[in-house]
Amino acid sequence: MREKSVMSNRQSGTPNGGKIQHVKLVLLGDQGVGKSSIALRFVRGEFNENNEATVGAAFLTQTVNIKEHSMKFDIWDTAGQERYHSLAPMYYRGAQAAVIVYDVTDTNSYERAIAWVKELRQHASAHITIVLAGNKADMAPEARAVQSEDARHFAENNDLQFLEASAKTGMAVSEIFMAVATKITTNIEHGGHIDNRKGIQLKGRTNSDAKKKKCC
């Protein structure tokens, strides 16, 4: 496993001296869709055209401030190669959030993203916040293979956040993680809490209740 630990000074600190909320977030998706590029753009503001393929998983951290909350993301950037698939549950188990990335120019990567959604619904925390993110949105329109409307429709039907982004240009990368932060903050303000073993726990609802909601 590659490990990187980076914390941005420009977004560190606790508003009003409040407690930092630790959020485990896992990045999932096919090899080559740009998971590592999205993570590095968010954490360091960098883009490397020749990123090496992740082996196992890489670890990064970043802290953001939202309302009166400070949220520290513990980001697990998982390998996209099929041979590492069996390791994925080790990283998404207990995660409060997942960002599932596909390449807007690659239909197969989108189908794989849909498969990841189904797997998380079956095996991850019942209250996990999921963002479906279409990367490489800076590509020319004729290169696009996955239409925004199709992905947005799927996301709406499956209670997912949806954004298209570009790790290369930085477009909407921060918004992906802020969407997670906003959703989790809303859950906390409505009486939920972060459980490091079970994810977000909502007041008055059990894991078994949430699991009854069907996916796809």
UniProtKB/TrEMBL annotation:
Instruction: Please tell me whether the keyword Oxidoreductase is annotated for this protein.
Output: no
Q: Which residues form a coiled coil?
A: none
Among the GO molecular function terms of this UniProt record, one is: GTPase activity
Signal peptide, first to last residue = none
Q: Which SUPFAM superfamilies match?
A: P-loop containing nucleoside triphosphate hydrolases
Keyword Lipid metabolism included in the entry's annotation: no
- Keywords (A to Z) from UniProt: Nucleotide-binding
Concerning its family, UniProt says: Belongs to the small GTPase superfamily. Rab family.
* PANTHER family in UniProt: PTHR47978
| Name of the protein described by the UniProt record | Ras-related protein Rab-5C
